[in-house]
Amino acid sequence: MPGLSAVPAPQPEPSTRWLVGLLLVAALLPRLGVFFINENLFGDAVVRTELAERWLAAPHVITSYKDGTYQFGPLHLYLVGAVLSVFERDVAGRLVSLVFGVLSVVPLFALTRRLFGWRAGVAAGLAFSAWGMHLQFSTTAGSEAVSLFFMLAVFALVAEGVEENRFQPLFWGAVLLNFACALRYDAWMYIPLITVALVFSSEDRVASLTRAVGFGLVCLPFPLLWMQGNELAHGDPFFPIKAVDDFHKQWVSDSGGAGGALGWRLQQLGFWPGVALFTLTPGVALLGGVGMVRAWKKHPETRWLVVMAVLPALYFTFRAAVLLSFVPLARFTVTQLVLVPVFLAPGLAAVVGSRGDFARRAVVGVSAVLAVVMPVALGLYTFRTEGGLHDSLRPVSPTSTNPVAVMQVARFLKDEVAAKGGAAAIDDDPRYMDLQVAFFSGLPEMRMARVRWDTFRQRLGDARPEVLVRFDGGQLVKDPGVKLDGRTLTLDGVAYQEQDGFSAPLHVYRRQP
């Protein structure tokens, strides 16, 4: 018809494969840039790797807390253990995180594209690629990057199933949620959250209830088997979760929050927004936050995803600020924060409105510059630098490096003890740096006597260590069999002489002839 000639033809969407490939490259390059300089430090990375080594030495199906996994998810130990059969211990866990960290951009793009279009999907993927905190997670051996991949895949499949009114995507989303639950316990809360959200996913109540019941049932196999295993092993199906809760309650007390000081409560109230603004950077965080509000009003079909981000954050904030039973860490926020870039497009539309192309380009440009410059500056600021603000910011920095003094002792043990078939005794440290010394020393377990272990005395007798590492504030000097006299430490009648060249709080001793 002649009148249609005035209507511009819609621009075709670029190839999805090309877009996904572009985003994979964008996610991979910055992570490769820090992979070769980062070290396992946070997220219990070294402990997870050591437990994976034990599992690899005797592979079996882990059935409970005390069956080799403790407070960690068994699936992560399987993954790291499998890679340990090919790569060294310092690389294996980090490689697992790198693969899943880079792949996470695929379900994020799919989810955002489905809700707001391909341009929004590209914007979310690029913002995710530059997320400094996730760069650290993707290059160290914690479980955050792996768990986040599965959670994003769950959200993408749920969105697909609801929009297309098909149960198959919901089924596979529930299967993947089992995997997420086998990685981290915070994923468990999404079983009831998503199930309830599906109840309200359609005006057809029969269809909605059918989706919800089916999804909920498929989510149950791992949680039920894990609860049964812990019931048989500990007499309590929720033993691991209660153990983690007890640890956090004690942590609140040790951190000075048990009295309910106003400063502590205010700090916890602002934790999730603060981490979002600082790690996602202000432009991404503010646009995404505004986008969530706009989407709630203008796009009711996306409200369930807003709930997935907001409700868990409110729950953990309530526990931290009101109940004083939880200590939040930045790495605990990732499942909620990763959904913020999904809403960048509606946020930009709300902020710019009808102000024109110049305003749009200015907002996008400033946000993009901040998203790149802030992580780079933070990574340089915390790289191999200790003390004060450096230590406080390191958990959210793209770069993760151990204290210089710790690595100096670890290298000494590796070169002078492990390489020569020797053994060492290692004190415990209130900041858990003894875990880092032991891990990077390269010493096998049977050639270490660690104060942190209840087998310390037995290992002392078996290994007869010629080198001893002591920490200021450690428990070793409180042992009744230990006497410290100047630069000489006597342990069970064996004298050790302190060596020069090492910095406090670490002290290295050699056994006297």
From TrEMBL:
Main location, first listed in the record: membrane
Annotated compartments: Cell membrane
Keyword Ion transport recorded: no
Gene Ontology terms: cellular component: plasma membrane
UniProt entry tagged with the keyword Membrane: yes
Residues passing through the membrane, by range: 18-38, 91-110, 116-133, 145-162, 182-200, 212-229, 271-293, 305-327, 333-351, 363-383
UniProtKB keywords: Cell membrane, Glycosyltransferase, Membrane, Transferase, Transmembrane, Transmembrane helix
InterPro entries named among the record's database cross-references: LipidA_mod_glycosyltrf_83, RgtA/B/C-like
Membrane topology listed for this record: Multi-pass membrane protein
Location of the Glycosyltransferase RgtA/B/C/D-like domain: 74-212
GO molecular function: pentosyltransferase activity
A GO BP annotation: lipopolysaccharide biosynthetic process
PANTHER family, per database record: MANNOSYLTRANSFERASE YKCB-RELATED (PTHR33908), MEMBRANE PROTEIN (PTHR33908:SF11)
The protein, known as: Glycosyltransferase RgtA/B/C/D-like domain-containing protein
Organism whose genome encodes this protein: Corallococcus carmarthensis
